[in-house]
Design a protein that fits this description.
Blueprint (H helix, E strand, L loop, with lengths): L11 H23 L4 E5 L6 E4 L11 E8 L2 E10 L2 E11 L1
Parallel strand pairs: 2-5
Antiparallel strand pairs: 1-2, 3-4, 4-5
Amino acid sequence: MNERPVKNVDDPKRNGPLLQSLRTAQRVAERLARRGLTLLRVEAGESRPVIWIGDARLNAQLNGVLTVRRSRAGSIERVFAAQLDGCLVKWTQRGGSQ
């Protein structure tokens, strides 16, 4: 397998948006962890990073809005989202019946 050297590896137009998204996600994730929230995963790309968290009992401090309501096997799953310093923070709450 012939590998050619990659040109312009440090080109900010190429990697800049993703690197900025990762820096923003790290800063916000650290802030959420200091608040006692559990981090589940981070989705970073060229747009706003998405951080998924757990601990539904603590999420009231984020003032999120309901974005999705799903019905599964007789129970309801709600997906909430809040904006925080350039990130979208999401979490789910399960429970209740239809």
